[in-house]
Amino acid sequence: MSLLSPRISVVIPLYNEADNLADLHRELTASLQGLGQPYEVLLVDDGSRDGSLERLLAIEAADPRVRVLRLRRNFGQTAAFSAGFDHVRGEIVITSDGDLQNDPADIPKLVAKLDEGYDMVCGWRKERRDPFSRRLPSWFANRIISAATGVHLHDYGCSLKAIRSEVVKGLRLYGEMHRFIPAVASWMGVTLAEVPVNHRPRTRGRSKYGLGRTVRVMLDLFTVKFLLAYGTRPAHLFGLWGLASGGLGFLILAYLAYIRLFEDTAIAGRPLLLLGALLFLTGLFMVGLGLVAEMLVRIYHESQGKPTYVVRELTPPAAARERERARPVR
Ligand code: UDP
Ligand code: MG
Questions:
Q1: What is the pTM of this model?
Q2: Which ligand is nearest to the CA of 159?
């Protein structure tokens, strides 16, 4: 098995998981060796302070397929995934939690599904082993995310996924957004599949999250939804509402001006005046905001040379293909 060019890269973020590392490495090795394809394991130490690092380095020293990526401080799970993505070398990226709640034995199943031709295969923790206080908000969150993003999955929170590396390399993740990887990637036109995976209770170490995460996830959902729908054309959203509000305000003000000027009616004390002025100004600001947002989008795309589309492939002209075929194989 070549160590130089792994086909599979496993990325695992770790924050204070010292007691899980030995079993994690053992289970990963068993599962990946069973698969019989060259692989690497990228263990991302997200600023652990419980001695995880020493154990990680010991594992790395003993196993040439393991690489440890050490972040300078605790940046959070999403950033740790991003860091890992920037350093993977394989064609297929497997993501997983490192607390053994995800079962490495499921990896071959994900890879097999991906090899059917999908761009991303997401794990679905059909029987989730977390306390009810965690499962309930997740249940709601999953339904809201499904409805809002139009990317329909059962389980957005499951870290265990298999993704083609060209998809991963194009992702930019912020906040708590690793759970929106399928939604963010849907912008690129990826094909998605979902497979049920094993889930186990956490036996060692502590969960890093509480209820506060639900709120953060919902806020991130706004961002994702907005970027997906209007990321390259914000003026359409702001402009539409701005025109509606401004137009209504204008009509109201025109009416009030008419009765004041031609029917000599007093309008100063009328609530309608306030409403009209408010709608008109709001509309004006919204249109302006839309234009500013348009400029930001252009700066974003043009300064970074980022196109507003993603190419899957450009078929070469027929002649070039012929020549390619006629070339003697060496
Ligand atoms: N994690 C991380 N950085 C953080 C928080 C968590 O790298 O700031 C890792 C953690 O070590 C684990 C995974 O992310 O491997 C999932 O975390 P956890 O098990 O606490 O989440 P839960 O399963 O409770 O949702
Ligand atoms: Mg966990």
A1: 0.88
A2: 1
> Is the same domain home to 199 and 242?
no
pLDDT at 307: 87
Task: Quote the mean pLDDT of the chain.
Answer: 93
In a domain, 322, yes or no: no
Q: Give me the domain span that covers residue 225.
A: 8-230
- Cα of 282 vs centre of ligand 1, distance in Å, is 43
Å from CA of 204 to ligand 2 middle? 10
Nearest Cα residue to atom 13 of ligand 1: 97
Ligand 1-lining residues (CB < 6 angstroms)? 13-15, 17, 46, 74, 76-77, 80, 97-99, 101, 207-209
What's the average model confidence in pLDDT over 49-74? 97
Q: Has residue 330 got a pLDDT over 70?
A: no
The length of the chain is 330
Q: What does each C-alpha distance from 182 to 93, 188, 191, 216 come to in angstroms?
A: 14, 10, 10, 18
- The structure tokens listed for 245 are 């509000």
Q: Are residues 149 and 238 in the same domain?
A: no
Per-position b or e across 257-278, b if 16+ CB within 10 A of its CB: eeeeeeeeeeeeeeeeeeebee
Measured CA to CA, the distance from residue 268 to residue 51 in angstroms comes to 72
- 186 and 258, same domain (yes or no): no
CATH number of the CATH domain containing 124? 3.90.550.10
Give the pLDDT band of residue 305 (cuts 50, 70, 90): confident
Tally of domains in the chain: 2
Pocket test for ligand 1, best of 23, 99, 159, 208 (most atoms within 8 A of CB): 208
108 shares a domain with 77: yes
